[in-house]
Structures are given as structure tokens and as C-alpha cells.
């Protein structure tokens, strides 16, 4: 029971960050569409580095993927994120 409560709390915390993550992801897509990959703002570069680290943790099975994480991985894959 305690694990269910912890999982629910984690999902709520994650959901509260989703708009910010989604906004940054949209900015990444916008830059890709414009072909400005070489002139990304430093904030977006840092975000991409953090996403790559997280992606690798889940991609190699060090962490189990769940709900929102699976959705984010799918979104990153949709734009050829590596």
C-alpha cells in the first residue's frame, strides 16, 4: 500500500512539471523545424543533455519505465532524439 501511495505522489510531482517539460520539448521541435540545431540557446542545450542522461538510464534498463516516462521517450523518439 505504501508503494502505491509513493508511486501516486511521484506521478503527481511529475505531472506538475509536465507543462514545463512539454514547453521545452515544443521549443526543441521548433528549432528542428527551422534548421537551427547549431544555434540552440544554452538553456535548451542543458535540457537536451539532461534528457539524454535520463533516456540512457531508461534505455539500458537501469530504471523501469512507467507512464509519463514512456510517453516522454516516445516524444523524444518522434523527433529522432539520441
Describe the structure.
There is one protein chain. The chain is mainly alpha-helical. 77% of the residues lie in helices and 0% in strands. It is elongated. 2% of the residues are buried.
Largest sheet: none
Rg is 14 Å
Roughly how much helix do the residues carry, as a percent range? over 70%
Order of helices and strands: HHH
Roughly what is the average pLDDT, rounded to an integer? 75
Flag low-confidence runs: none
Number of helical elements: 3
Distance between the termini: 37 Å
Q: What is the 3D form? A: elongated
Structural class: mainly alpha
Number of strands: 0
As a percent range, the share of strand residues is under 5%
Topology:
Elements: H1 2-34, H2 42-59, H3 67-78
In a nutshell, what does this entry contain?
The chain is mainly alpha-helical. The chain has three helices and no strands.
Amino acid at each position: 500500500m505504501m508503494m502505491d501511495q509513493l508511486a501516486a505522489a511521484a506521478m503527481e510531482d511529475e505531472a506538475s512539471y509536465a507543462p514545463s517539460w512539454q514547453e521545452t520539448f515544443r521549443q526543441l521541435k521548433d528549432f528542428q523545424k527551422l534548421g537551427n540545431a547549431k544555434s540552440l540557446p544554452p538553456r535548451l542545450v542543458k535540457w537536451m543533455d539532461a534528457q539524454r542522461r535520463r533516456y540512457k538510464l531508461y534505455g539500458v534498463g537501469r530504471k523501469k519505465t512507467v507512464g509519463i516516462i514512456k510517453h516522454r521517450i516516445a516524444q523524444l523518439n518522434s523527433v529522432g532524439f539520441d
